[in-house]
Amino acid sequence: MTPSDDLSPPRRPIFFPVVIATVFLTIIGLTAGFVLGERRKNEARAAQPGPASTPNQPAIWTPPPTPAGELCPVETREFAAAQGFPADLRQVLRIETDNRTVVWICQDADEGLYYQGKTPRADGQLVQNQNGLFLPGVTELATGEYQARATNGNRIIVSREMLEIRFTSGKVEKHKVVAAD
Fold first, then answer.
1. Whole-number Å distance between alpha carbons of 103 and 19
2. Residue 32: exposure state from Cβ atoms within 10 A (0-12, 13-18, ≥19)
3. Do the Cβ atoms of 150 and 156 come closer than 8 Å?
């Protein structure tokens, strides 16, 4: 018996074949991922409605739709613009209550809703933060019923039938609508 009979057979180096196999598998995986991603993009493009655009056609800009209706009071539009809100506010609802308060619910071109309230004043003018209250972020609760929330937490609910103010103290003030547009 020779000493070489007791030794295990020499090992073949496997490091380089494993590295090469890993590189090939990585390339195959990246290629498959890229192809599937492009396929998904093409399917999404095909599913989108509208005319297909060609690179030779210039893009045509169209302005956003303007809401229908009368413009809200000029004082409201000027105040909105000064506060950084759109000034193209259109009247969605206008009510007058039994205590002569007038409320407008206004809408901008992006369908954002705003509250404008006006309490009676001797000269009849609308002056923000005196007899006028402008509130952005109005939500439509139901068809024709809107809710505005003042910075102090009071909620104002407006509809064609009623103006309701819910104070944070729990007090509720209701006024009947005598005229609505």
1. 75
2. exposed
3. yes
The C-alpha atoms of residue 155 and residue 168 are separated, in whole angstroms, by: 8
Nearest to 157 by CA among 103, 76, 98: 103
Answer for the pair 114, 88: CB distance below 8 angstroms, yes or no: no
End-to-end CA, the chain:
113
Q: What is the mean pLDDT of residues 121-140?
A: 90
Give the tens place of pLDDT for each residue, 28-40: 988 988 888 888 8
Work out the pLDDT band at 7, boundaries 50, 70, 90.
confident
Only one residue has tokens 């893009």, namely 59
- Spell out where the chain has E strands: 90-97, 102-107, 113-118, 132-142, 145-149, 155-158, 162-166, 172-180
Phi, psi of 149 (to 5 degrees): -120, 120
Q: How much is the pTM?
A: 0.62
What is the per-residue pLDDT across 51-81, written as a single tens digit (0 to 9) for each?
555 556 566 655 555 556 799 999 999 999 9
Contact status, residue 166 vs residue 155, Cβ threshold 8 Å: yes
Domain range summary for the chain, segments of one domain joined by +: 13-47, 74-180
CA dist., res. 85 & res. 112, Å (int) = 10
Cα angle value 25/27/29 (rounded, 5°): 65
